[in-house]
Amino acid sequence: MVDDVSPSRADATHRAGPQRPGRLWFWVALIAVLIASLLFGPPWLLYTQGLKLVVQLPQPPAEVLPATQQREVWQRAGLGGEPAAAVLDPVSYLASAAVQARPPAVTAFAWRVASDHLRQEARALGPLEKHLAGAALTIWLTRHWSLGQLLSRSAQLDAGAPPAATVPKG
What we know:
This protein is mainly alpha-helical.
């Protein structure tokens, strides 16, 4: 008996083979997007959940210290060199904590302002919620306040100044 394979059927099989690079790139791109979503999605989700725990966001100080006084606040904190700003994001914040890397120096000032603000709100939060809200607010502060504003508010806290005003979240 002779195999009944017509030429058109053989051509169709040959064309449908693994010679479709567009399909391969689609799957590679899809897998890359899924991996990126799994790596970067949860930190941003935690960040937004932490900010939801903050009733009102702190307002920056009305007056910013001159650069010489900012440098003094920086040096009183035991930091050398010139004050340096750093903008945090949830992914790098969690990654540095996971590998126990030293965070940027400005983080200490932002954390201090954030924790003072959360203390002033006096909400009954559990330990995990307090830490999540504090971390989210620390990140938010580095993204929305200047270094001068953070150092000025930190100096106000050193002097025992009253709490900063708040701005409703919107």
